[in-house]
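Suppose you are handed a protein chain with no further information: no name, no annotation, nothing but its sequence. What can you learn? This example shows the usual starting point.
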Amino acid sequence: MTTYPESPIGAFSIAEVRVSGRTGVRPRGFVLRSYCDNDDARRELAERWGYPTVAGDVKLDVRHDRVVARVNAGGKPVLECELLDRDMISGGDIQYIASMHLARNKDDGKLVLVQVDPEFTFAKAERGKPTLSLISCNTEPLEGVGQPKEKPEVDLKYQAWIREMPCLVPGCPNESQFHHQNRQGHGAKGALCSDYRGLPLCCWHHTLGGTPGKPGSYHGTAKLTSWTFWKVYGVDVEATIHRLNTIWLEMGNKFK
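A reasonable first move is to predict its three-dimensional structure. Written in structure tokens, the prediction is:
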């Protein structure tokens, strides 16, 4: 279990269930499941590095005689463990084991094994006797790779309506194409996405690298990452999708 008080997407905590092994002489941990309490972090970890994430309430309670870690998911406890008989040790004695994740390559859609090597500077370190009191696998589906694909909603009328709008990049006068905004944040190749998450982007900012003074595109050779693209142009993606959906319904239309 790790807590990150600061990150580009805010504070978050993550708890991992791993199978330990070795690559040559080096220890590694293959991650079976990760619980994360920040939705943005969960999507980024799954999309960028293949973390098999689910939403969870992750708590680390440091007491005078023990450290207690608890994870709740779907309103139920799924993981509880404790560290007892703690002794102070040097941070130099800590070897943080790299994690391995199964991810899908965006270029060809093939599965690859991704190794993540975090770096830590330890101000305080302890060791003790670990005790596992609860572990459950009966939780919601993973957000990472290997999940069954659901059939997305297709609405050609909604697509045509979106294409009539100006490009979302402020000040861009070009006609729009229909862009699918994947929930995982990057619209990865092969990912399924409802038409009701569609957004208007001109061909230049969709795939062709942007325009003079407004560089970068969502896809293509000059692509920016999803997080960077929308941040550069000041677009609140989820709020925009919600606003478009609301207008669509107020016009007397229905979702399929």
